[in-house]
Amino acid sequence: MIFITAKFRVKPEDADSWPEISREFTAATRAEPGCLWFDWSRSLDDPTEYVLVEAFRDDEAGGAHVQSDHFKTAQRTLPPHLVQTPRIVNFKVPQEDWSELGEMAVE
C-alpha cells in the first residue's frame, strides 16, 4: 500500500472550520475504491495544524486519486486556507492494514 502522512498549516481564522472546508474532498476521497483510509487529526500543540493520514491500495489507486476531479478541485480550493505548502511523508509499505503495536498490547 501507499501510506501518506501530510501536515497542513491552516490560517488561524480558518482553523476551526477546516473540517467543513475539507469535507467534500474528504468524502469523495474516502469513496474511492482504492482508498484504504483518509483520516484527519488536529494537533494538540498547534490548533492551526491538521495531520492527514491516508493510504491507498497500490500505485494505480494513488494515481487515480491525484487524477480525480475532486483532487483537482481541492488543488484550487484548499490552498487559499493554508499558510504554507503542506509537508508530506509518502512510502510504499508491504501491508494492507494497520499492524498492532505489540509493546502496548491490551489484554
Question: Would you mind describing this structure in some detail?
Answer:
This protein has 107 residues and is of the alpha+beta class. It is 28% helix and 28% strand. It has a single domain (2-93), classed as Alpha-Beta Plaits. It contains four helices and four strands. It has a four-stranded antiparallel β-sheet with strand order 2-3-1-4. The chain starts with a strand and ends in a 15-residue tail after the last strand.
Counting copies of identical and different chains, the oligomeric state is single chain
Query: Can you count the beta strands?
Result: 4
Q: How would a textbook summarize the main sheet?
A: 4 strands, antiparallel
> What is the level 1 CATH name?
Alpha Beta
Radius of gyration: 15 Å
Instruction: Classify the secondary structure makeup into a structural class.
Output: alpha+beta
Strand content: 25-35%
Provide the CATH architecture. Answer: 2-Layer Sandwich
Mean pLDDT: 97
Head-to-tail CA distance between termini: 29 Å
Number of domains: 1
Quote the CATH topology.
Answer: Alpha-Beta Plaits
Strand and helix order: EHHEEHHE
Strand line-up in the sheet with most strands: 2-3-1-4
Domain ABM: 2-90
Keywords: Monooxygenase, Oxidoreductase
InterPro entries: ABM_dom, AI-2_Isomerase_LsrG, Dimeric_a/b-barrel
GO molecular function: monooxygenase activity
